[in-house]
User: Which sequence fits this backbone?
């Protein structure tokens, strides 16, 4: 009997194992390059939603609000339609912000357990939301066991950081500020802050450890990484940023993680001009996308001081560097004053900025609260305040005093209040994202600016596979009249009727010349202040 029992148990175990493998294999994979078809939402976990009443946001709080981002039903319009979330640092850290990691293979206990995080991933995936986590690999926290051990000159971790027995003559870092600090009678390199010592990538074991962490999170189910401070991995003499070895490291890492998961996605914080960012994909690819800081500055600037060509020119510059639209677009993020504050809380300008972002090429990112016009100016804590959900106690964020005081005006400006207002900023974002999700041309269509004699009139042609649309916006807060359109050539020929997706009818049809040109083609009617249009052109 005992022998029979053991055989039966072995058989049952084998069946369970094979079933598990089969079910895993049958799980639908996201399409390759899925990031080209989604809008991302950046979340500071500490400030998004507190589920347990300790004043700190957490993983379960995000789960509670997932239907706000995307309820999983493409036929509903009351959610934002978000297809991906970027979680700011979730690793253990001694700081509130988390950009000093104490353990690369664990989660911050303030936010929950590893099982809570796994459940968050599961619930996101059920709704078609992909999860990208912040990967802070240039430096660690000063309380990381690697660094604490490295203080001992005899430690095996000594070379994991940059130490020197004598203070260098040149003590400045990439921005001219002090970068060397003393501990234990010797000096270590930490350009961001004394409590963020730089990892030494000249030591191969550092790369091995980061590769190991990469595999850990991909195996856990995350869909990719946002790489923090990507410019600074290797110091080569006086080259402290964008060094050839840094660029090559990312190209090697790219090949590594794609072997683990060919649908994994990375986006890099390479905070510099577009021409330098382009180098990270030469001669081979280093990451899937990079944040376009030049583009963000120009989009916001083009609505602050109305200039259509500043906006269209910024997109054109980004596309020149990344012709397939392989870049991440945004307006502001967690390191910058919030959009509403930059635009003087002008609702019209915020709507115009959102329109440019969400109808343009690239993969758009929204910073949490941007969709309701949350304000905030540095210091950093004040641009990372708790989300304003309702007019209830503590803004619906928590049942107790939050870790940071809410913005003034949260009782009037919150999600619940904007839900009830059809003309609110929140509902504007919902409308735009829904249109982007339903119209492939807005996501991946070719981008061709059309010139106008009206300086504030932004006009672009989006075209792909024989389909075409016009995206038009008056960036000015005044009416413009007697506007005309000019383009030297395009793929269009003959007359096209206008089908309105957004806005009131502007014209019934438009005619292109034999080479696809428009020559001072007149728009018959005046265009109102901040008026916007999305027009399908049917042959």
Assistant:
């Amino acid at each position: 009997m005992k022998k029979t029992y053991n055989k039966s148990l072995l058989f049952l175990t084998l069946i369970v194992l094979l079933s598990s493998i089969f079910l895993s294999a049958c799980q639908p994979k996201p399409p390759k390059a899925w990031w080209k078809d989604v809008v991302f939402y950046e979340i500071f976990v500490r400030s998004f939603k507190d589920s347990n009443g300790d004043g700190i946001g957490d993983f379960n709080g995000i789960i509670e609000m997932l239907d706000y981002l995307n309820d999983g039903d493409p036929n509903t319009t009351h959610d934002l339609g978000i297809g991906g979330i970027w979680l700011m640092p979730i690793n253990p850290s001694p700081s509130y912000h988390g950009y000093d990691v104490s353990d690369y293979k664990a989660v911050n206990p303030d936010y929950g357990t590893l099982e809570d995080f796994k459940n968050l991933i599961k619930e996101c995936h059920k709704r078609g939301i992909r999860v990208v986590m912040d990967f802070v690999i240039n430096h660690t926290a000063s309380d990381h066991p690697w660094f604490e051990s490295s203080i001992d000159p005899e430690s095996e971790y000594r070379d994991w950081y940059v130490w020197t027995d004598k203070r260098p003559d040149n003590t400045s870092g990439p921005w001219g500020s002090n970068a060397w600090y003393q501990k234990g009678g010797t000096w270590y390199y930490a350009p961001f802050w004394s409590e963020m010592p730089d990892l030494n990538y000249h030591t191969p074991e550092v790369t091995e450890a980061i590769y190991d962490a990469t595999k850990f999170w991909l195996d856990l189910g995350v869909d990719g990484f946002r790489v923090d401070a990507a410019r600074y991995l290797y110091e080569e003499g006086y080259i402290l940023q964008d060094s050839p070895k840094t660029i090559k490291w990312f190209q090697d890492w790219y090949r590594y993680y794609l072997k683990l998961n060919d649908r994994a996605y990375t986006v890099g914080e390479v905070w510099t001009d577009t021409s330098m960012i382009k180098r990270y994909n030469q001669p081979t690819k280093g990451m899937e996308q990079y944040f376009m800081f030049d583009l963000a500055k120009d989009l916001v600037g083009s609505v602050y001081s109305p200039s259509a060509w500043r906006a269209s020119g910024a997109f054109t510059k980004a596309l020149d560097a990344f012709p397939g639209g392989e870049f991440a677009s945004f307006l502001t993020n967690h390191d910058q004053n919030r959009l509403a504050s930059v635009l003087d809380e002008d609702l019209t300008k915020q709507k115009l900025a959102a329109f440019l972002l969400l109808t343009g090429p690239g993969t758009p990112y929204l910073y949490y609260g941007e969709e309701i016009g949350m304000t905030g100016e540095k210091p950093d804590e004040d641009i990372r305040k708790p989300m304003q959900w309702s007019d209830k106690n503590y803004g619906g964020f928590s049942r107790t005093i939050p870790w940071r005081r809410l913005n003034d005006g949260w009782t009037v400006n919150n999600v619940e209040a904007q839900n009830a207002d059809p003309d609110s900023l929140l509902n504007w974002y919902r409308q735009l994202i829904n249109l982007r999700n339903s119209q492939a041309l807005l996501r991946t269509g070719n981008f061709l600016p059309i010139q106008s004699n009206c300086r504030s009139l932004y006009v672009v042609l989006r075209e792909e596979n024989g389909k075409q649309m016009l995206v038009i916006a008056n960036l000015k807060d005044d009416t413009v009249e007697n506007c005309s359109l000019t383009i030297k050539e395009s793929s269009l020929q003959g007359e096209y009727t206008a089908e309105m997706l957004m806005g009131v009818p502007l014209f019934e049809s438009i005619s292109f010349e034999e080479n696809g040109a428009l020559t001072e083609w007149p728009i018959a009617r005046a265009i109102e202040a901040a008026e916007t249009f999305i027009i399908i052109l049917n042959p």
